[in-house]
C-alpha cells in the first residue's frame, strides 16, 4: 500500500539483526514498524523521513555481512 515514512531508525552501513526495527511507516492512518527480515548491513535507504512512497516501493536494501 502507498504510505509515508514517519521515522527511520537505522543508517547506511549499520549492522542489523533479524527482527530489528528499520523504520516506522504510516499507511491508511495505521503505523507499522518495518523490521529486518535477516541479519545483515543496511546497504541503502531509498526514502527519507516524511517522504511518500508507492505500493511495492523498495524502502531499504540490506546486504549480508561480509559482502
TrEMBL record:
Gene3D superfamilies, per the entry: 2.40.50.100
Entry-linked InterPro entries: Biotin_Carboxyl_Carrier/Decarb (IPR050709), Biotin_lipoyl (IPR000089), Single_hybrid_motif (IPR011053)
CDD domains noted in UniProt: biotinyl_domain (cd06850)
Keyword terms: Biotin
Lipoyl-binding domain: residues covered: 1-63
Entry keyword 4Fe-4S: no
Pfam families: Biotin_lipoyl
Protein name per UniProt: Acetyl-CoA carboxylase biotin carboxyl carrier protein subunit
Organism: Bradyrhizobium zhanjiangense
Amino acid at each position: 500500500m502507498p504510505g509515508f515514512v514517519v521515522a527511520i531508525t537505522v543508517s547506511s552501513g549499520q549492522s542489523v539483526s533479524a527482527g530489528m526495527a528499520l523504520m516506522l511507516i504510516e499507511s491508511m492512518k495505521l503505523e507499522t514498524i518495518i523490521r529486518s527480515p535477516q541479519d545483515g548491513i543496511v546497504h541503502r535507504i531509498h526514502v527519507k523521513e516524511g517522504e511518500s512512497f508507492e505500493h511495492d516501493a523498495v524502502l531499504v536494501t540490506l546486504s549480508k555481512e561480509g559482502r
